[in-house]
Amino acid sequence: MFDVVPDVPAPGSAELDVPMPPVSGRVAALAAQMTLEEKLAQLVGYWLDQNGTVAPMQSEMTAGQADGGLLPEITKHGLGHYTRVYGTRPVDPVERAQWLWDEQRRLRRETRLGIPAIVHEECLTGLAAWKAATYPTPLAWGASFDAELVEEMAAQIGESMRALGVHQGLAPVLDVIRDPRWGRVDECIGEDPYLVGVVGTAFVRGLQSRGVIATLKHFVGYSASEAGRNHGPVSMGPREIADVYLPPFEMAVRDGGAGSVMNSYSSIDGLPVAADGALLTDLLRGEWGFEGTVVADYFAVAFLEVMHEVAADRGEAAALALTAGIDVELPTGDAYLEPLAERVRAGLLDERIVDRAVLRVLAQKESLGLLEPDAFEDEAPTSIDLDPAEHRALARRLAAESLVLLTNDGTLPLRQAPARLAVVGPNADRSAALMGCYSFVNHVLAHHPGTPDGIELPTIADALAEAFPQAEVVRAEGCAVEGDDRSGFAAAREAVEGADVAVVVVGDQAGLFGRGTVGEGNDAQSLALPGVQRELVEELVATGTPVVLVVVTGRPYELGWALDADGPRPAAVLQSFFPGEEGGRAVADVVTGAVTPSGRLPVSLPRTAGAQPYRYLQPILGGPSDVTSTDPTPVRPFGFGLSYTTFATTDLEVDAEVPTDGVITVGVTVENTGGVAGATVVQVYGHDVVGSLPRPVAQLLAFARVELEAGERRRVTMRVPAARFAFTGRDMRRGVEPGVVEIWVADHAGASAPKTLEDTTGGAIVSSAVNRRHEVPGTATERATVTLTGEFHELTGADARIAQVEVTR
C-alpha cells in the first residue's frame, strides 16, 4: 500500500506524484492499519506545561489546547511528540522521568496501535532542564574553532537526554550571521559558512552518537532578515542563499547524517519557507538525499495564516505546510488535527501526502526503538546527575578556549595576586550574565523567581576571589546592563581608585521577547554597548588604575573606543560570548594566566555602531574604497585573537596545479616562539583571482587548532577540496571554475591585503573622506598561486566539503 503510488488526480486538484519513502515492512504494515485520525495524531506534538513564554506568541497560539489533565482523551488516537516535558518549567528530573515512563507505557497500553511518543527538548547550551549542565553558547563554540571539543560536548548533552527518555534535540542552529543586530546571534556559530558547517556538523555527530536526533535550524535564511528584525522578510537572491546559507545545512545532512530539520519562520523573496516545497522537498530530499523528518518551528504552520497571511484558515495553512514538506507540527496540533482532517475528508488534500509524512515519522520512531515490544519496559532512573564533574570540566575548557583577547598592553596575565582587586560592572557578579538565551536559567527560570538555579553558577567575581584567595576583592555593580541610572558610578569609581587593578565586566543580559538585551525577540537598533556601560568604563579608566575590560555578550558590539582610542583606554580587553556555567572560572583562568587565551573572533567586530549588515566575505566593493565615504572595515576582523605567547608560521607549500574536482594540499610549519604553552588556530584563506562573478577578497578554506608547548613546532597539512572555491555561476549551476586562485595562511581574515584603496578604482576616483588602512596586529604568509585545471566542475553529493587535517612533528 505504501510503495510508490501511481499518479492519481486528487479531487479538485492537479495531478500529484507523491512518492513514498522507503520503509521497513513493519512500518508499512503499521501505517496500513491507521485511520485518518491516527495518522494525523502521529504528525503533531502536545505541550504538557503551558506557563511562561518560551516561544513566539505562545499564549495566543496555545489558548485552545486541551488541558493536560485530559491526556487519555487527547491522545486516544496516539501522539507524535511530547513537547518539552522537562524544559518548560522547573520540574524534578527524576520525578518527571517516572511520569514520562508511566505515560509512555500508557500510550502503549491504552491506544489502539500502542505507539510511544517522541520526546523533544531544547539543547542548544546543554539540555534545557532544571539541574542540567549549561555549556557555552554557540557563538563561543565558533570562537573556540574546536570542532572536536564541540562534538564531545554534544555527546555529553546526548547522554543526559537519553538517560531521561528524550529522543530529539532542537539544535544546532546553522544560521550564518549576517546582521548582529538580530537578537538570535548568540545562538549562531559565526559569520563564515564553512566554520558554521564544520562546527555544527560536529555537534550533530556528537549528539546523535548517543542516540538522540539532532535538528538543524532554521532552514533557511532566517538570520538574513531585513534590519536584523526577528521573523522579518528576507530579501535575497538564490545565489547568496546557495553559496552562503545552504552549505552548513548540506554539510550537516550529508556529512553529519542529521535526522531532522526545522524550518525558518521567514519568507525569502516573498515566499514563506514553511510553504516552500522547492526548499523543503526538492532540494533537501531530492538533491541532498535527506531521509529524516522536517518539523515545524513552533507555531510556524499557524503563522502561515496569522502572520504571513497566505492561508485563509488553519486547514489551508496545514495543507500548504504538509505539501511543502513539513512532516510534524510543533509544539501542538493546532492545524494538523481537525483542520487538516476536514480538508482531507472534503477532497481538498490528497491523503497520500499525509501518508508520506506518517511513514517518515514511524520510520524515525522505529530507528529510536519506540516500536519494539519492550519499549519503556525498563525502569525510569531513580537518581541522575545532570551536571557531573566531567560535564563541568568540559564546559570550563570550552569556555576558556572561546575567550578572545582583543588587546593587551602587558597587564595580563595577572600572575601575581594583587593586594586589592576591584571587580565591578553590571556583569561582574551575576550568574545569569554568563548564560545564553536558550539556557534554562534565562529561558525558563526567569519566569519562576525564587526558584534555585539547581546548578553551581559562580560569577566572575566569585571565580576571581577563588583564584586570588589572599587578595582583598571589592565588588561594585556600577550600573545595570540597561537603562540610564548612573547612581552606582560613584561606588564603582571608589572601588577602582583604591585597587591595584580592576576587572570591569560589561555586556548583555540574554532573554526572550523584550526581556533582556539579546536573545530571541531582542533585536537591537544599534551596536553600541547597551545603557550607560560605556560611560561607566570610561569613568573607571580615567582613575588611572589599570582596567581589564571583560565583555560578556551574545553579539559583537562596537568597541573601537576601548581598543584603539587615542586617549586613556583599558589596559586589556577580553571578549567572552556567554561562556556558560563555568564561564566565571574560565575568565579567571585566562586573567591569571592558568590558561593562555586562544579564542578567535567568529564574527567581525564593527568599527561603528551603525556599520551593519557586514561580514568579511565581501568582494572588493564590499569593503572600503574611494567610491564611498563610509568605511565598513571592522575594528577587529574575523579570526582575530591575541595570545600570551607568539607563533611563527613558515614554509608554506601548496600544490601548483589541481583539477577542478581535485584536492589541494596545503602544508605549513607552526612554531610556538614564546615562553609559555598555548594554542593557535591555523587559518587557510583563498581568493579566486578572476571569476565569472565577483568573488570575496578573502575566504576561509580550512582551519586547524594546534596546541604547542613553548618552543615546540609542528607541521600542519590540510587537504582542501577544490570544491571550497565553488560558487553559483551565471547559469545558477554551483561548481568550480578553472583558473588561478591564491592561497595563504593568516592570523585572521584581514591579515593579508592584496590591494591598496587606490587600486579599487585604478586611481580614477580619489576620496579624501575614506579612512585609510587600519593597522591590526596579525601576520600572513606569502600567497601561493594554484591553477585549477580542466573543465568547469559542477558539484555533486560525492564532492568532499570538509578539509582533512593532519598535524605531525
UniProtKB/TrEMBL annotation:
Q: Name one GO biological process term.
A: glucan catabolic process
Q: Which residues form the Fibronectin type III-like domain?
A: 680-749
- What GO molecular function annotation could you give as one example from this UniProt entry? beta-glucosidase activity
Q: Which UniProt keywords apply?
A: Hydrolase
Report whether Cell membrane shows up as a keyword of the record: no
Which family does this protein fall into?
Belongs to the glycosyl hydrolase 3 family.
PANTHER family in the cross-refs: BETA-GLUCOSIDASE, BETA-GLUCOSIDASE B-RELATED
Provide the protein name: Beta-glucosidase
Q: Which organism is it from?
A: Flavimobilis soli
